[in-house]
Amino acid sequence: MNKIPVDELLRWRLSQAEAEAPPTPRASQLLELSRPWWETWPERFREALERVTRIQLAYGHAMAEPHRGRSGHPVAALIVQKVSELETSARVLYLNVRDRRLHLRFQLDASSEHAQQNFEVTVVSDPAALPVFSTTATKSVANEYRLSAELSNEVARDWERLKVTDRMPFRLILRAEETNG
User: Which of 66-70, 143-147, 155-159, 177-181 has the lowest mean pLDDT?
Assistant: First the structure.
């Protein structure tokens, strides 16, 4: 049996891995991948933005429904999937801003058939209708999702005072992970 030194075997394996690896992406490709979806697909974003800003919610019911006791006002939400869109709302269950970091938990009022394991959530300012940030929301239980995101100084300062029972200064666009554009 041939005895091959370990360092020679490792060099051989490294050369194999380098040969099988895809080419290194160009800087322009990396920059393109880092752009938020609203810049990559501006027309699609404009359509989703128009639709989510038209959603009207009955804020008077927010405190009148006893089974919603642990949450406050509903937040307009639009679920964007590959072949359809669904207007719904979300209930903020937990909101905390500390050191410019937002921690948010919300429950979608949509049926469980529209639930995804993860959504790309774009938080849109209300009433200005401008994107604030986009991040991934991860499903925890039932239709509950959680997310964490870094905020700008101005937004963090404004949102530090928010309580879950306050009317939220944002709307949500939730994109299913398989949605591309």
Answer: 66-70
3-state secondary structure at position 63: coil
Nearest to 71 by CA among 109, 42, 36: 109
Percentage with pLDDT > 70 across the chain? 87
- Which residues, in sequence order, are CB contacts of 87 under 8 Å at separation 6+? 51, 52, 55, 76, 77, 78
Structure tokens that stand for 153 in this block: 């100084």
Element (H, E) at 54: helix 42-54
Q: Which amino acid is at 157?
A: R
Sign of CA dihedral 13, 18, 22, 24: positive
Closest CA to 172 of 112, 86, 114: 86
